[in-house]
Amino acid sequence: MSENKHLLEIKNLSIHYITNDGTVKAVEDMNLEIGTGETLGLVGETGAGKTTTALGIMQLVPNPPGKIIGGEIFFEGENLIGKTPVEIRKIRGNKISMIFQDPMTSLNPVMTVGEQIAEVIKLHQSVNAKEAIERSMAMLEKVGIPGERHKDYPHQFSGGMRQRVVIAIALACNPQLLIADEPTTALDVTIQAQVLDLMKNLKKEFKTSMIMITHDLGVVAEVCDKVAIMYAGNVIEYTDVKRLYTSPKHPYTIGLFGSIPDINDDEDRLKPIKGLMPDPTDLPSGCPFHPRCPKAMSICSERKPLNTEIEPGHFVKCLLFEDGVK
Ligand code: SF4
Fold this sequence. Notes:
Layout: E1 8-19, E2 22-34, E3 39-43, H1 50-57, E4 66-75, E5 78-79, H2 85-91, E6 96-99, H3 103-106, H4 113-124, H5 129-142, H6 159-171, E7 177-181, H7 189-206, E8 209-214, H8 217-223, E9 226-231, E10 234-240, H9 241-246, H10 251-258, E11 307-311, E12 314-317
Parallel strand pairs: 3-8, 3-9, 6-7, 7-8
Antiparallel strand pairs: 1-2, 1-4, 4-5, 9-10, 10-12, 11-12
Helix pairs in contact: 4-5, 4-6, 5-6, 6-7
The chain binds iron/sulfur cluster.
Residues 250-251, 287, 289-290, 293, 295-297, 300, 305, 318-320 line the site of iron/sulfur cluster (SF4).
């Protein structure tokens, strides 16, 4: 590992999709860092750019129509952009793993779950077939599934159990970084809590760094150390969890907190953010949030806000926090 203290460092990353309807700026000038053992929450509405960020890190952006327009993604000090497909395959599924929202899309219906875990282990480590099956049984036990069920097929498991199998596959090679894209959204609430607990415990045990992609601020509070809030391809606020919850600064972040239902509160006080996410092929000029922003000023439709560090480790992209504006 290089001298770089961050496991993952994203610098000025931009990813666009070039479509017949226009260019979608899915990720714009992103800067993020994740240290060893840290969990970063990537939060935003559908279409904010969260999954594209994950695909960018995994070097899986579909090209065409997607393209990494600029920036760097350093993993263990090495830039992933520009690596050959062979080099990337050695990292993907081994040092960096990903869990998707719907477990059925990542499981092969005609292979037993044990074979699927063993396949990942054999691909990246020099073990024989018997050892790989033994390790896959041990991984199943770690995620709370009896090892003897390694001979079962995905359809023989419930939704929550299937997601446990996916987690076992993702952790089979003890990756340094796990990217979880809405891993509990497709599950019912009780199972969601169990899977989240499991992920928290495994993260501690394996010392894995994690990116948790979610639209759920409750999930963030429970599992994340740092949070990046995304809107229309931009990280508009980035800080640690405590500061985000005690002192959110960006009007969009404040709006997100205002739109969380609170059972102890009057329903009248629930204030959803007005308006809808803009058309990604036709973003508003200046700050893309300006048509929905309760604090918008005339300059907001004219100038894009810069990423401003308002105190050490707390970044906001909003003109209210730039010197000389207002
Ligand atoms: Fe609102 Fe202007 Fe800040 Fe954008 S730059 S969030 S429109 S105040």
